[in-house]
Write a structure and sequence with these properties.
The protein has helices at residues 2-13, 25-30, 38-44, 79-83, 98-111, 128-138, 151-156, 185-196; strands at 67-70, 76-78, 88-93, 118-123, 144-146, 164-168, 174-178. The chain is α/β, with parallel strands linked by helices.
Length: 200
């Protein structure tokens, strides 16, 4: 009986990978997940990803040249070029992250306000189909990109936690990396106004 108690205690205290940036166990076992299907993309009904403006000069800043997949259609997207010339909020999240699930509707509400800056979600897990399903469940249809290998996180120097919001100036420089979940659209608006000087 004592041996069972010792083994149970050892299992309980054994260090585990933090959930904030874990790898999906099934994904790790089977290898990289397949890309989402056209049907899954259509069901999620996401807004189109931002596109580069012909009037803008070349992208600058840490996101220049960072290629991710647009969740709406699966096409590659140079995120820095797509955001060039406009302030933006890039929200790093994952389908399994509960604080992210509570924050995403606030981002949706903020993005619908007149004067809001561009909001793009960046799914930070390889399981693209699960991201689309989660966004559909939450009724969040913001533009989104798939960043399963963490290119955006690495480029902006964000810590290995979720959610993280990156406030990007129109010139491509990073105004702030916000390492906490927003609790409301008003919280987002106040942070954006304070860091980027843009009110909504």
């Amino acid at each position: 009986m004592l041996l069972i108690a010792v083994v149970a205690l050892a299992v309980a205290l054994w260090p585990r990978e933090p959930r904030e940036l874990r790898t999906d166990t099934a994904t790790a076992t089977r290898g990289a997940p397949a890309a989402a299907s056209d049907g899954q993309r259509a069901a999620a009904a996401l807004a189109a990803c931002p596109s580069p403006s012909p009037q803008q000069s070349a992208a600058a800043g840490p996101l220049a040249g960072i290629t991710v997949g647009c969740l709406r259609d699966g096409r590659p997207l140079d995120l820095g070029a797509a955001l060039a010339g406009r302030p933006a909020l890039v929200n790093l999240w994952a389908y399994w992250c509960e604080p992210c699930a509570r924050e995403l509707p606030a981002l949706r509400e903020y993005a619908a306000r007149p004067g809001a800056i561009t909001v793009v979600t960046a799914h930070s897990d390889p399981a693209e189909a699960k991201a689309l399903a989660r966004l559909g469940d939450l009724d969040v249809h913001l533009p989104g990109v798939q960043d399963g290998d963490g290119r955006v996180r690495t480029a902006v120097g964000a810590p290995a936690v979720l959610p993280v919001s990156v406030l990007v100036r129109a010139d491509g420089s990073i105004a702030k990396v916000v390492v906490r979940p927003f609790d409301s659209a008003d919280d987002i608006a106040a942070t954006v106004a304070g860091e980027l000087g843009v009110g909504a």
